[in-house]
């Protein structure tokens, strides 16, 4: 795809980052350079490479360079730390790990040095910027001028996305060339992207939303421009929107609300904005009204998942649909079932569990045969874990979830992953993590811990330091720790998360009254 775009309009601007501007021709040759460099290091078709880069042009040079070689990027998030990265490297048997030198004060070279000790499959750590003791990404490649694309089968895996997760360790989602290209093309069409599109990537481009829904890839597919930034705060973002005449962007609900408030006092000219996508977590109707009030009829709700299925409110949808639903499936071939706990269809309009199957939805997690037996129905429907209802117009409203995941303003935290980390603490005998409502983030995490015999359970600060030391991503560290003598159990002997959620809420009430 990149080669086609670069031939069609080599001199148009593809990517903007700060003062840097890359034309399509420059992006094309940057991808070629990376491909030759990686080929020179022995990286070949089928190899997996963990890519952990922020929103900088090199992300796309490496992404497309890997595509060119037929190698598969594993898209780690910028906030992933040792625990996640080691797991992703081992699971994918990655041969290389690509990192920035220092990003937002965090030295990724130090992290990489720890990772290589625990993931012997890694043969190379490639650094964008000052490589320290590792290998520079920039460097001599093979002499061959231009590595030609090796694909002959569009059903092969093109990239591996990280799942929000419900189990102890993150899962990888195989996305194929044909499914992901469709994802990008159909999304770009629905969102009316064209050569005049200027897309601002303010969410991490390693996440499906900003990468391909329609995201940066959609903007490039349409012949437009993508502006990359890691600063979604309104001061920086509004200045960029004004300077670059940004036409479209994607946000999670907390950021959308901050932006909406900021329009009241910021003087920037935002008149170029034609599409403001909000998704990744529930946008409450009152917040949708606030955002639409501030930005006008440019708001679009997006209910998507890295696993595939995307729902969008259409750009010409009635106001009521935009304010009160999370959109309609992208493809006419997306199959939706809304079922009860025995997989029986609920009556039309009733709330149930969302199952889906379709042209760009995964058929199985990567190297997870056991998990796949429960994550899918026998006939291949993916169990999203979301509770939805369908309106007469076919739009979905997200009403909750059955999966044990905390959605912290769009950042997904698998309860089991944090629980398993917590119980490695010598003073913790048992742990259960539940969501608590939060005005800004929608939800935060509350961990209930049971102290080990004769031990005193750690407080929040100590637990946080412990989990950071274990290499857990910062957004997974519990916002609250509560100590119990024992965890409540259900009639069948499972931890009663519902009781814990109510308890957490009751404790919030008490804390709220105690601290006016
Ligand atoms: C996006 O992808 P993931 O993989 O980080 O998370 C998917 C999950 C969904 O299953 C759902 O539980 C939740 O995030 N979610 C929403 C939502 N959008 C996602 N819940 C309520 N309302 C929404 N609008 O989050 C994602 C991927 C592509 C595009 C947009 C979001």
UniProtKB/TrEMBL annotation:
Domain (AMP-dependent synthetase/ligase) ranges: 3-366
Entry keyword set: ATP-binding, Ligase, Nucleotide-binding
Species of origin: Streptomyces muensis
InterPro entries: AMP-bd_C (IPR025110), AMP-bd_C_sf (IPR045851), AMP-dep_synth/lig_dom (IPR000873), ATP-dep_AMP-bd_enzyme (IPR050237)
Keyword Endoplasmic reticulum listed: no
Protein name stated in the entry: (2,3-dihydroxybenzoyl)adenylate synthase
Superkingdom of origin: Bacteria
Domain AMP-binding enzyme C-terminal: 417-494
The keyword Ligase belongs to this UniProt entry's keyword annotation: yes
GO MF annotation terms: acid-thiol ligase activity; ATP binding
């Amino acid at each position: 795809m990149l080669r086609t775009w670069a031939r069609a309009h080599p001199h148009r601007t593809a990517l903007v980052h700060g003062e840097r501007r890359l034309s399509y021709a420059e992006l094309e040759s940057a991808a070629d350079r990376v491909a030759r460099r990686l080929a020179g290091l022995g990286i070949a078709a089928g190899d997996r490479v963990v890519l952990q880069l922020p929103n900088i042009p090199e992300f796309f040079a490496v992404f497309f360079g890997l595509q060119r070689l037929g190698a598969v990027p594993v898209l780690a998030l910028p906030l992933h730390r040792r625990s996640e990265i080691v797991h992703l490297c081992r699971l994918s048997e990655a041969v290389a790990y690509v990192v920035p030198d220092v990003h937002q004060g965090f030295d990724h070279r130090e992290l990489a040095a720890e990772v290589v000790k625990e993931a012997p499959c890694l043969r190379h750590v490639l650094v964008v910027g000052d490589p320290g003791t590792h290998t520079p990404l920039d460097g001599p490649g093979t002499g061959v001028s231009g590595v030609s694309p090796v694909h002959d089968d569009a059903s092969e895996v093109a990239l591996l996305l990280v799942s929000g997760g419900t189990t102890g360790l993150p899962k990888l989602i195989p996305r194929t060339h044909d499914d992901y290209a469709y994802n990008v093309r159909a999304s770009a069409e629905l969102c009316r992207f064209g050569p005049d599109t200027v897309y601002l990537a303010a969410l991490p481009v390693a996440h499906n939303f900003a990468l391909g829904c329609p995201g940066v890839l959609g903007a490039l597919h349409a012949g437009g421009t993508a502006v990359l930034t890691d600063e979604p705060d309104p001061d920086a973002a509004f200045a960029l929107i004004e300077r670059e005449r940004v036409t479209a962007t994607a946000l999670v609900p907390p950021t959308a609300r901050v932006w909406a408030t900021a329009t009241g006092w910021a003087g920037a000219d935002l008149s170029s904005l034609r599409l403001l996508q909000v998704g990744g977590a529930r946008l409450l109707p009152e917040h949708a009204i606030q955002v639409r009030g501030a930005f006008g009829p440019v708001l679009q709700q997006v209910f998507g998942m890295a696993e595939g299925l995307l729902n969008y409110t259409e750009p010409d949808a009635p106001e009521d649909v935009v304010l009160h639903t999370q959109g309609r499936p992208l493809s006419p071939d997306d199959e939706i079932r809304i079922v009860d706990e025995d997989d029986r269809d609920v009556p039309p309009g009733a709330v149930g569990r969302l199952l889906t199957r379709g042209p760009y939805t995964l058929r199985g997690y990567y190297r997870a045969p056991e998990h796949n037996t429960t994550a899918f129905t026998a006939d291949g429907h993916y169990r999203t874990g979301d509770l939805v209802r369908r309106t007469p117009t076919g739009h979905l409203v997200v009403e909750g979830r059955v999966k044990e995941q905390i959605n912290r303003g769009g950042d997904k935290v698998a309860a089991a992953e944090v629980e398993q980390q917590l119980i490695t603490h010598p003073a913790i005998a048992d742990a259960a993590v539940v969501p608590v409502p939060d005005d800004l983030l929608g939800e935060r995490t509350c961990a209930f811990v049971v102290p080990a015999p004769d031990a005193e359970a750690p407080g929040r600060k100590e637990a946080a330091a412990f989990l950071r030391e274990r290499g857990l991503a910062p957004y997974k560290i519990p916002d609250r720790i509560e100590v119990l003598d024992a965890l409540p159990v259900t009639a069948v002997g499972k931890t009663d998360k519902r009781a814990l959620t109510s308890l957490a809420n009751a404790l919030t009430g008490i804390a709220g009254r105690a601290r006016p």
